[in-house]
Each structure stands twice: as structure tokens, then as C-alpha cells.
UniProtKB/TrEMBL annotation:
Annotated AMP-dependent synthetase/ligase domain residues: 24-383
PROSITE patterns: AMP_BINDING
Xref: InterPro entries: AMP-binding_CS, AMP-dep_synth/lig_dom, ANL_N_sf, ATP-dep_AMP-bd_enzyme, OlefBLtnSyn
SUPFAM superfamilies registered for this protein in UniProt: Acetyl-CoA synthetase-like (SSF56801)
Source organism phylogeny: Bacteria, Pseudomonadati, Pseudomonadota, Gammaproteobacteria, Lysobacterales
The organism of origin for this protein: Arenimonas oryziterrae DSM 21050 = YC6267
Protein name: AMP-dependent synthetase/ligase domain-containing protein
Length: 540
């Protein structure tokens, strides 16, 4: 891209705010600058011993330095280790200990925490982005100076070599390090370009920083938003709109929580031609509102996938709106057709490991099963977590593809007669009662139709097979507590209109659901189950 479009701006990052209160975006990096400066940083890192295969923790805020570093590490063949900074400190320490990094690159605050909390003790090389204090090592400015005027630094990496270690958000357990190989990133770029029809020259506002790393490979200009990427639900829509209007942004990536922020703000988005939202199902009312705010010819995509495999399937907003009635009657959330390169199959629901693929694993058409994926972006293992790998991966001897890994998504779903995949919720969140299993995405949308309800969450109390279903309810902001009795009665009447929700008779009102750190969209049902058990006085 640097050779083809060297003068094109690769990214603009927010800087100091002007008199109007909005970021000035003074710092812009062209493709040529990105190429040359990342070469210099890669060469400088090599003098410190950060080379091919060096596991390197990166704890840097979204900034020019973050993107320069990431591309320098990829060029060097080093292995960036990325962990969500907002997770619990104990979990963060466990992740870093498991990764056993050789180097640590971070802002001063991250280095101070590393020293005080004894993070990443294996890291022998330290680089500080910003001012270095008592911990020694080098600053990034010094590293770039060491490699000044260096030529191309691209390491001769092989497809199966480890390219990065990306930790899951841990929304359903302890975060796990997903091993990305170079072939996985190459496949993702091809799949994203094909699935969404992305062409070079567009202008993107990626509100989730890791996705901004794809933009230069796709020939896009990234406008890094003025927001805290760990709190998309609290983003200021005025700042987002200012960036969109100022630079004529043509595409936007954000979590459902961020889409809800824009939908509530209600301003038209005339320059956008493509909006992509992932991380959790996008509520139907948010999809409907966003469609009204976008131009008629714009596309609103909601891809389905996970850190371990992305994208798996995609659906456009118009088709998603057409399935809304079915969703609100308990069908689940339609996530569209699988991406062509993926082999998506549904297997019987079990919590046990499956070592090898065999005939008879798949469920009958129309039956809910666990979603599995084999394809070019499906990852092979979790780093140093053999038990987790065994539970999530199946070996298959395929007649056309040879030996391959089938990834178990840990999600439940079913296929309709048109070959579309319907998401029914996480396998770990299913509620197994004496009358059968209940799935979160088939239950909650039924109750979410109530105008006073913001969202609901189904949890199960007790042992599997005899679980008691409990519906936790979060009301719309401003709803008076005195209205709860009326709302409870109306919700029970709504649930009674469907066979699968008719036996749910325990409702608990909750002031504000816990959500995941990464997207602020996935409901923390494990926490809600413990809360509900205490409220009712029964075991979780």
C-alpha cells in the first residue's frame, strides 16, 4: 500500500482539543510515513533483541505509537501479546504470567503497575512509550532513533508461525490466549475484504482499536475516535459525529453498545456507506434506528464470530430487520449465511471434549446444536491451555482438506431452510430444566418487546437438568420503582403467550446489568446468576 498510495493518509489520531471542545486531529501519518517509521522501529527493536519469535506485551493506548509499534513487531516477526487493560488485575497478572513474555512495551502507567504488581517478570527488555522513570530500559523515541533510515525489515515468516497472542475478554470465564498464526491474519484480511466489499481509499472510524490494524492492509484511512475504547457505551456521540463530518467518514466499526449511543443521539449520518457492528447481537430497535439515520444505499453489517474465528457469518441490516418478528417470537437472532470459505456445522450439545470428528456428531436440520467452524481463519489452540484447547477443538480428517481443526464456538444455533444461521446464545448460558433446555437468545427477545424493559437476562439456578429459570430484568432509565408490579404482571402475560417461555415465573428487577469489558454489550450472566441466587436464597 505504501508503494501504491504513499501520500494517502493512513491514520489520523486525536490530539489536544480546540476552542470548540473537539479534538484537533493534528497528527496524521501517511502510508509512506507508516512504512518508513515502522521499519525504523523494527530495526531499533532488533538491536534490543526483540526479533522473530519474541513474545512482546503491548500495553499502549490507541495512538500513532500503538499502530507504529504493532506494524514494527509484525515486520520483525515478533509476537505481540494483547490483553484487555480493563480486566481484573488478578486475571491480567495471570494472563501475563501465562504468556511468559520476553519484552514489555507500555506507557509509564503500565510500567509502574508492572513493577508494583510484579507483572511479566520474565520480560528482560523494557520499552516505554512516553517518559521513562525508575524502571530502566529504553524509550520508544530512542528505539526509533536507533533504527533511523533503516530499509525494509520484513522477516521471512512462515504461514504456521505464531503472529500474535490475543487474549479473549474473559466474559464467560478466565481470559485465554488465542494463538494467531500469520495465515490466520492473511485469511481474515481476505475474508473481510470479500464479505463486505471493501475497496481501498475509504475512510474508517474504528472504535475498537485492534480492528484499526486491518485498515492499512485494506488501503483505508483510519480516523481514531476521541473516546475511551474500553467504554464504548459511554462514548460522547457529539465527538464521534464531529470526526465523521470533519473527515467524511465512509465506514464505521463499533460494538452494539456504541451503535445504541448513536441511535439514541439521533443525528443523521449522510457520509457513511458501511457500518459494521460485532461483539454481541445488535438489538432490533437499534438496527431499525440506525437504518433510518443512514443513507438509503448504506449497508449495516452485523458479522458473527469470535476472537478464535472471525468472521464466521454475516447479515445485512435489511435482512436482519426482516427477521425481527421471528426473533421476538423466540427463534433466536439470525446471523445470516456463513462466509463462503467457512464450513459451519452444528453438533449435539455436550460439555465434554471431542477429540476427533466422526459421523453422527451433527444434529438434524432445524435442531439447535453447538456451532462449529472449520475454515482459514479458525485458530488452532490456546496458548499453554491444553485442557481449554481440548474442549474447544476437534481434529478432522477431511477428504478434500486433509487434517484440519474444527473450532467449537461455544455458541448454540440452528439453520433455517434458506441456509441461514440463527444464534441462540452461549452454550454455558443454557438453562436445563426438568421440562427441557431454554436458550437465552430464544427467551430474552420475547420479554424485551415490553416498552419499559431495556433488556433481560435468563439465568438458571441449581443443578443441570433440574435448574430453575429466573429472568433478570433491567428497566428503561427513569422507570419508577412503583411500576414494577405492573411490569411484572405484563411480562408474565407476554411470556405466557409462548410455549418455551410460559413456565418462567420468577422475575427479578436489577438496577444495571454487568457487561463485558471489551464491547460493553455481552451481559455478565454468571454474575447475575450469583446475584439472583442470593436474592432468592437458593444455590446458584
Amino acid at each position: 500500500m505504501a508503494a501504491e498510495r504513499g501520500d494517502q493518509i493512513a491514520m489520523r489520531c486525536p490530539g489536544a482539543r480546540g476552542a470548540d471542545g473537539f479534538a484537533r486531529y493534528d497528527e496524521a501519518i501517511s502510508y509512506r510515513d507508516l512504512e518508513n517509521r515502522s521499519n525504523a522501529i523494527a530495526a531499533g527493536l532488533a538491536t534490543l533483541g526483540i526479533v522473530r519469535g519474541t513474545r512482546t506485551v503491548v500495553m499502549v493506548r490507541p495512538s500513532p505509537e500503538f499502530f507504529l509499534l504493532m506494524f514494527a513487531l509484525f515486520k520483525a516477526g515478533a509476537v505481540p501479546v494483547l490483553v484487555d487493560p480493563g480486566i481484573a488485575k488478578s486475571a491480567l497478572k495471570q494472563c501475563l504470567d501465562e504468556a511468559e513474555p520476553d519484552a514489555f512495551i507500555g506507557i509509564p502507567l503500565a510500567h509502574a503497575a508492572r513493577c508494583v504488581l510484579r507483572w511479566a517478570r520474565s520480560a528482560r527488555v523494557q520499552v516505554t512509550v512516553g517518559r521513562r522513570w525508575f524502571w530502566g530500559g529504553h524509550t520508544l523515541a530512542q528505539v526509533e532513533a536507533l533504527g533511523a533510515h533503516a530499509g525494509p525489515q520484513l522477516a521471512d515468516t512462515a504461514p504456521d508461525e505464531m503472529a500474535a497472542l490475543l487474549f479473549t475478554s474473559g466474559s464467560t470465564g478466565v481470559p485465554k490466549g488465542v494463538v494467531y498464526r500469520h495465515r490466520h491474519f492473511v485469511a481474515q484480511i481476505d475474508l473481510l475484504r470479500t464479505a463486505f466489499g471493501i475497496e481501498a481509499g475509504g475512510i474508517d472510524l474504528p472504535t475498537f482499536p485492534p480492528f484499526a490494524l486491518f485498515d492499512p492492509a485494506l488501503g483505508l484511512t483510519s480516523i481514531i475516535p476521541d473516546m475511551d475504547p474500553t467504554r464504548p457505551a459511554q462514548a460522547d456521540p457529539r465527538k464521534l459525529l464531529h470526526a465523521i463530518e470533519k473527515f467524511g467518514v465512509t465506514q464505521l466499526f463499533g460494538s452494539p453498545a456504541l451503535m445504541a449511543v448513536l441511535a439514541r443521539h439521533g443525528a443523521k449520518l449522510p457520509t457513511l456507506r458501511r457500518v459494521t457492528s460485532a461483539g454481541a447481537p445488535v438489538p432490533p430497535d437499534v438496527v431499525a434506528t440506525m437504518r433510518e439515520l443512514l443513507p438509503d444505499d448504506a449497508q449495516l453489517w452485523t458479522p458473527y464470530g469470535a476472537t478464535e474465528c472471525l468472521p464466521v457469518a454475516v447479515i445485512e441490516g435489511r435482512e436482519l430487520q426482516a427477521t425481527r418478528v421471528a426473533t421476538e417470537r423466540g427463534a433466536g437472532t439470525c446471523v445470516g449465511h456463513p462466509v463462503a470459505a467457512n464450513d459451519v456445522r452444528l453438533i449435539e450439545i455436550t460439555d465434554a471434549a471431542i477429540a476427533d470428528w466422526r459421523d453422527g456428531l451433527q444434529v438434524a436440520p432445524g435442531v439447535v446444536g453447538e456451532i462449529t467452524v472449520a475454515g482459514p481463519s479458525a485458530t488452532d489452540e490456546y496458548f499453554r491451555r491444553p485442557q481449554a484447547t481440548a474442549l474447544a477443538k476437534i481434529r478432522e480428517q477431511h477428504r478434500d482438506h486433509g487434517e484440519r481443526i474444527v473450532h467449537r464456538m461455544g455458541d448454540l444455533g440452528w439453520f433455517d431452510e434458506e441456509g441461514r444461521l440463527w444464534f441462540c446464545g452461549r452454550k454455558s448460558h443454557r438453562v436445563d430444566t426438568v421440562h427441557g433446555s431454554l436458550f437465552t437468545e430464544q427467551v430474552e427477545p420475547v420479554f424485551n418487546t415490553h416498552p419499559d424493559v431495556r433488556r433481560t437476562a435468563l439465568v438458571g439456578l441449581g443443578e443441570r437438568g433440574r435448574q430453575r429459570p429466573v429472568l433478570c430484568v433491567e428497566l428503561q432509565p427513569g422507570t419508577a420503582s412503583g411500576e414494577q408490579a405492573r411490569i411484572r404482571s405484563e411480562l408474565l402475560r407476554i411470556g405466557g403467550g409462548f410455549v418455551h417461555t410460559g413456565r418462567i415465573d420468577t422475575l427479578l428487577f436489577h438496577a444495571g446489568f454487568p457487561v463485558d469489558i471489551r464491547h460493553n454489550a455481552k451481559i455478565g450472566r454468571e454474575q447475575l446468576a450469583r446475584w439472583a441466587a442470593k436474592k432468592i436464597g437458593t444455590p446458584a
